[in-house]
Structures are given as structure tokens and as C-alpha cells.
Design a protein that fits this description.
Two copies of one chain form a homodimer. Chain A has 323 residues and is an alpha+beta fold. The first copy, chain A, is built from nine helices and 14 strands. Chain A has a seven-stranded mixed β-sheet, sandwiched between helices. In chain A, strands 13-12-11-10-14 form a five-stranded antiparallel β-sheet, with no helix packed on it. The A-B interface holds A 120-121, 142-146, 149, 152, 175, 189-198, 200, 284-286, 315-317 and B 120-121, 142-146, 149, 152, 175, 189-198, 200, 284-286, 315-317.
């Protein structure tokens, strides 16, 4: 209902739209319209009103509200359902709950703030209110659990494609870190629930530093974190970037479901800054760190490295680039 | 407390044990001992009592109660914690809840009856009360999600090893069906919750037809289901078989955690009846059925088959053996 009112006010461009007209259009009373306008104002919309002329939309808040996100959103699957929160402990936690309760493929959970946001391996994630994009995407694909690990590379490519629409040059470090000057802009945490022969759901948590100045980061993050605004040299609209990302994600996900991941892995190779480099590998699972040269990723998304002992596959872990 | 009382009664062999002795040993009142004896009787223990001589254990019920299972159970990890239910919709559901709430590696959920038991791909599972073993094992291994699919083959091998202790000859059809005369005795449903670089938990649901006569099965199952008692030609103690299985599972799981799956896959090959046979493959994920010859399993547990077009890997799906 509120989304319809906002659409209606927007359609009036800078002109006033009469309360009666809105009421008629929606089949509700003028008092009901008034109440919705009050609610919209509370969430940050600036709407002026005049007894004779009606309502005029003056400013849309840079909040990631479904009404804004879904306006002219060009997707087929992703973002048709959005669960929006001002604050939550973790969008992945909510998404897993929704997914278990039957939420549709492509449902998105968004929060303006996370009090318990987690990066990979339980690491905490810095996310000041209204300055990041914090969301989780629920996927219920038909492909096999065996293919699920590639979704994390797919997500990095979707973010990279969104960055390109903002004239930003993506740099992906294996498996899914997006970097600017060696510092991290985006965190991706993929969780899966599966039987051996089918995926129940995949939840992809994406945290993007959007409008955070370098000195705003805690001291211990200033040398390892960056933001889109720092990269762009100006404020970036969170709404616009999020919409671009949902659209790019939608495209690439549909591609994966229909044609598999080959083309996506090629896109990943194009954006990557890992292959051909000397790296240090800290494998997940507790094995010891070692030096290697990153050679390629295989069809599973695993990193193929060459060490003194020969070629090796790294399925999961952290790498640091040494040159 | 009740387990201790049962142990105490058992230690008296066929003799009476005085209520006062038990009370002293446990540091509780004789009235409290009396109450526990009453509760044990309700769950099927036959305990005679005499005012002067105390209590005597006459019969232990064939219920899969923790007190019975854990008596002299030789395991290091599996079954140290048991959640026991007379009836439940699904032990896998309970296990997933417990696992998410921090249950320890090796925790076991047992139910005497399942009202909503599910086989793979949501198929229903026939399980008359007190005649099957219905349980779920929670694993929290340190190995990578990439290794998780092999747990389903590992489970089939653990069941096979338990069968051998009962002089039964195991026959495994890929990936994890245990058959007798082509009919299925055991259903295994593995579910996983994971991040890309670590396993949150694996829940392995195991349903075993123990003491079910062929004519007890519903008509549509009589040609595809069998039970241990049919195979053995006599009633099989559910308690004994379950304990054997937990011990075999414990051994093989510790082996997997320390040395990987190579030896386990070799055991699987030894018990399998699929390799070298003409089969029909119905791949998971909706691809079309096809004819092939089963050649081997690879190091991931995938089935390698040869078709007219060449070699192919089947990661998940159903096979039927044609000779």
C-alpha cells in the first residue's frame, strides 16, 4: 500500500497530488491515506502537504526500503520478496529461518545495521548504520550440492559487474574478496543446507562498505578495509548500488541455473588479481600455511597452486598475495 | 540417576539388592529410590521387590533407552550424549535443532517411532514402533564441506561392519543402500549445514528395518523392503545391533577424521554390488535416465560410469542394477 502511494507521488513528479485522487485510486478513505503518509514521513520520506493541493514528494530517504528497491527493479527472481529490517543481529540468521519456513527462491533480507554480523569463520564484521549494504539472498536452485561452492565465486562476479556499472574497476582475490588498493570492500558469507542429492537452500550474506571514510573504520581495520565511496571519490547511492547488484545477481544466477558455471568462472578469471601471483595459502581445516604460485581455478572453483612439491588444489582457505 | 540404578541392579546379577544399599550408594533417600524404580517399571523394566530383600532385575525391555545403549558401549565420540524419544515426527529434525543449539559431535537422537520420517528426496519411510532402529547422528567434523558427501558412503560401510558382527553378508548399492535379495534394509539420509570453508554440522539419519516380517510391510513395499530378522532367520536384538553400529560408526568416523576417506572407500568397494554391473542411472537434479556400466567410485565418492558416449561421473541420483 505504502509502495503504491510512493509510486503515485513519484508519478506526480514535482507537482502536488491530491489526497482524494490517491484515496480513489487505492479505494481507501482520505484519512487512511493521511495515516500512510504519516508513516512514510516517520521512515524518512519528506512529503509536504497542503489542504488544497494535497501531497508532494520532496525527498526520498537513502534507506534500503522494499518500496524503493523494488521500483523499476529489473529482475526475474531476485528481490521479488524483501524482508527489511532497521536493525538485526544477522541477516543470514533471518534468511536461514525464512528459507527453512518456505521462503521463495530469490528472497532478499536487508538490514540497515547488524549487531552480530559475522564474516567467514565467525569473524566479526564492521557495519555502521545506513552506511553499508547488509543483505542476504536466499537461493533454492535445482542444481546439485556439488555445485554450491561455486555460488560464492558467482557472487563475487555479480558484485564486480555491479561495480562496473558505477565505473569502478573490480579486483577479486580468491575466492571472493573484492579489494581496492589491497584493502577489502566486500565480505561474502555463503551458507548451505543440503541433502546429498539436493540443495535445501543457499543463503548468501553480502556486506558492502558503501559510504565509509577511511578514518571512520576502527584503527585495526584502516589498513585492511575500504569502501565504494573511497574508491569512487564521492558518495555512492546505496539504493542505486543495491539495485544494480540485485539485477546483476539475477542475470548471473539465471545463467548458472540454465547453463552452468563455465562462463561465470571465466568472468571470475577476468576480474581476478590472484592467478599468476606468488601467494601464501592458509588452508581451511587447520593445515599449515605454505607458499605457492596461484595457477588457475578448476571447474569446481578450487584454486590450483604450484608448490615445490608439485600442483595442489585448495578447496577453501585464505590466500595473501605476495607479488 | 536411573542408569546408575539399573547398573547397580545388574551388578547384583540375579540376586536381590537392598533399597538401602542403593540409597546409600547414590546418596538419596530410600523413598527416592522407590520412585525411580517405579519409573523404570513404567518404561518396561521388570523389577521384583520384596520388603526384606530389596529389588531384583528380572527383565530389560528391548527399548533403545540411553541407560541400555550406553552400558559398556565402546565408543570415543559417538553416543556419549543420547536424546531418546518414544515417538517423534523425525529424528533428523530434532538432530538439526540440537546441532544448531550446540550439541556435541557424536550426539545421537533415537526414536522408537517416527510419524513424519523421510527418506531421500522427501520420500516417506515405513517404521512400525519398536521394530526398527530410527536414529540420527550429529557430526561436527573438522574436515572440509567438500568431504561431506563421503559421509553417506562411510555410513553404509559402518552399517555393513555392524552386520558382519551378526554374521550377515552386506551388499551395498551405490551410494548407500543396503540390500538383501535386492530389497532394501536400511535407509540413510544425510543432511549438511555448512559455510564454504567449514562444516557447521552433518546429520546422518539412519533407519533400519530390524524385526519386521515380510508380510508386515505395506503391499507396495513387500517387493522392495527387507529386514535384518528376515535376513538372519530369527529376531535380532535392537539394542545389540544399535550398539554394534554405534561402535563401528565411531571407529570409521575417527579413521575419516584422522586419515581421510581412502581406506573407507576401499571398504565400500569390498561390500558393493554395483561396480562392474549394467545399471540404469536416474541422476538427481532432473536429468534423464540412462543406461550405463558402473566402473568405479572416484575419490569423492561419485560413481564413474561408462556409456556409449564415454565415461561420466554421477554425483547424486538413483541407480538400478540390471545384471
Amino acid at each position: 500500500m505504502r509502495k503504491t502511494i510512493v509510486d503515485f507521488l513519484k508519478s506526480g513528479k514535482d507537482k502536488f497530488v491530491s489526497g482524494e485522487e490517491i484515496a480513489k485510486k487505492l479505494g481507501v478513505s482520505r484519512a487512511a491515506v493521511w495515516k500512510h503518509i504519516q508513516e512514510l514521513r516517520k521512515t524518512g520520506y519528506k512529503i509536504s502537504s497542503s489542504e488544497h493541493n494535497g501531497y508532494q514528494l520532496q525527498e526520498v530517504p537513502d534507506l534500503l526500503m522494499p518500496a524503493e528497491i523494488q521500483t523499476e527493479l529489473k529482475t526475474e527472481i531476485i528481490g521479488k520478496n524483501i524482508s527489511y529490517h532497521i536493525t538485526t543481529d544477522s541477516t543470514n540468521r533471518i534468511a536461514k529461518e525464512l528459507a527453512g519456513d518456505g521462503a521463495a527462491d530469490g528472497t532478499v533480507v536487508i538490514s540497515e545495521e547488524q549487531t552480530g554480523g559475522k564474516g567467514r569463520l565467525g569473524r566479526s564484521f564492521f557495519s555502521p548504520k545506513y552506511k553499508s549494504i547488509l543483505m542476504s539472498i536466499i537461493l533454492k536452485p535445482k542444481f546439485l550440492p556439488h555445485d554450491a561452492p561455486k555460488c560464492t565465486l558467482m557472487t563475487a562476479v555479480a558484485v564486480a559487474n555491479a561495480m562496473i556499472r558505477f565505473n569502478l574497476k573490480p579486483a577479486i582475490k580468491w575466492p571472493n574478496d573484492l579489494l581496492f588498493n589491497g584493502r577489502k570492500i566486500v565480505g561474502i558469507l555463503t551458507e548451505i543446507s543440503a541433502e546429498m542429492s539436493r540443495i535445501n537452500y543457499i543463503v548468501i550474506g553480502i556486506g558492502i562498505n558503501v559510504n565509509i571514510d577511511r578514518e571512520e573504520f576502527p584503527d585495526d581495520l584502516q589498513d585492511i578495509a575500504a569502501s565504494l565511496s573511497e574508491m569512487k571519490g564521492e558518495t555512492v547511492s546505496r539504493i542505486d548500488f543495491l539495485k544494480a547488484l540485485l539485477e546483476e545477481f539475477d542475470k548471473i544466477y539465471i545463467e548458472a541455473c540454465h547453463n552452468g558455471f563455465d562462463n561465470i568462472l571465466n568472468q571470475w578469471r577476468k576480474y581476478n588479481i590472484t592467478l599468476g601471483k606468488k601467494i601464501r595459502v592458509l588452508p581451511a581445516g587447520g593445515d599449515e600455511e605454505f607458499a605457492a604460485v596461484a595457477e588457475d581455478i578448476d571447474s569446481e572453483g578450487a584454486l590450483i597452486v604450484r608448490t615445490e612439491k608439485g600442483r595442489e588444489k585448495v578447496y577453501a582457505g585464505d590466500v595473501s598475495i605476495r607479488g
